[in-house]
Specification:
CATH architecture: Orthogonal Bundle
Keywords: DNA-binding
CATH class: Mainly Alpha
CATH topology: Tetracycline Repressor, domain 2
Organism: Actinokineospora xionganensis
Protein name: TetR/AcrR family transcriptional regulator
Shape: elongated
Structural class: mainly alpha
Number of strands: 0
Number of domains: 1
Pfam family, one: TetR_N
Radius of gyration: 18 Å
Length: 176
């Protein structure tokens, strides 16, 4: 059997994230994705084995992107404000819609529970390292990460950019 092309596999993972950002997780099917990507469900199975494996790899890529963004802010005194600006940038909306779909899917015991848990704890772990000079850096990281995600969810649902930005910058000011 011929081995899948890694570059094509990586492209399919990235495009799966884009698809999820637009269509959501609830009605995700290999056939629907394949039609969008001009391929077949059979080819997706060739590359990933199962729907769950494809989603696992897509969510792993999503998490890796988020961790990379956090690591890029290390050493920046305004890292939290830069993070908020990145999170709330309309160009990144789809990325965070995927995150919230994943977190919602992880609320029930099932195939996304572990991936959703990592989506939360990886952010907290990275931000904890940024705040390691604090008395309780993990608690402060939890307040900052969870607070900003909550405000971002509010923004994505309501579209009230001014109110949400003011709240985010207030939270950041309280913690930095």
């Amino acid at each position: 059997m011929r081995q899948p092309n890694q570059a094509r596999r990586d492209e399919l993972v990235a495009r799966t994230l884009d698809y999820l950002a637009e269509h959501g997780l609830a009605e995700f099917t290999l056939r629907g994705l394949a039609a969008e990507l001009d391929t077949s469900a059979r080819m997706l199975v060739h590359y990933f084995g199962t729907r769950e494996n494809l989603l696992d790899q897509a969510f792993d890529e999503h998490r890796a992107r988020a961790v990379t963004a956090i690591q890029a802010a290390k050493g920046d005194s305004a890292a939290a404000a830069v993070a908020w600006d990145t999170m709330s940038d309309p160009a990144n909306r789809g990325h965070y819609v995927v995150l919230f779909h994943l977190l919602a899917a992880g609320l029930t015991d099932g195939p996304y529970t572990a991936v959703a848990r990592h989506a939360v704890t990886d952010w907290i772990d990275e931000v904890t390292h940024l705040l390691d000079d604090r008395d309780n850096p993990r608690a402060d990281a939890t307040v900052l990460v969870s607070g900003l995600k909550g405000i971002l969810l509010d923004l994505l649902v309501t579209g009230d950019r001014d109110r949400c930005a003011a709240a985010a910058h207030r939270l950041i000011g309280l913690l930095t």
